[in-house]
Backbone:
């Protein structure tokens, strides 16, 4: 009997009511050929929206280019009114509070150098997996 009581209490706890989920998507990035230029990718978003109340928690990404990226090349992912700088062309990170769990998200590629980028950089694909929690 005592075991059933603990089981019932656990099921009523806030942790038991939380659920995890994720979605993945990809898009084409574009071509960067000039320094001091910001290129914005096509948006990525889930095929099916996360449940009401979903809170974004993690982001995994992989960006594929047609070759090496120039010095001063930076990437950030944006959603809603927020942007977060990424540490490289692939990785995983915790997202700050307020990042939209349902997207849309887009990537911004920034070249901090001046002048033409030779050869130009083509971003062939942006792949993301966004993890979320629902309470």
Residues:
């Amino acid at each position: 009997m005592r075991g059933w009581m603990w089981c019932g209490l656990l099921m009523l706890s806030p942790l038991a009511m939380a659920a995890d989920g994720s979605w993945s998507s990809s898009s084409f990035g574009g071509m960067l050929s000039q320094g001091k230029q910001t290129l914005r990718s096509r948006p990525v978003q889930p095929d099916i929206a996360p449940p009401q109340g979903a809170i974004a928690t993690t982001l995994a990404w992989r960006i594929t280019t047609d070759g090496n990226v120039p010095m001063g090349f930076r990437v950030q992912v944006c959603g809603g009114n927020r942007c977060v700088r990424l540490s490289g062309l692939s990785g995983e990170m915790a997202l700050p509070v307020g990042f939209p769990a349902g997207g849309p998200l887009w990537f911004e590629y920034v070249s901090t150098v001046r002048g033409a980028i030779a050869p130009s950089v083509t971003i062939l694909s942006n792949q993301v997996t966004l993890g979320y929690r629902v309470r």
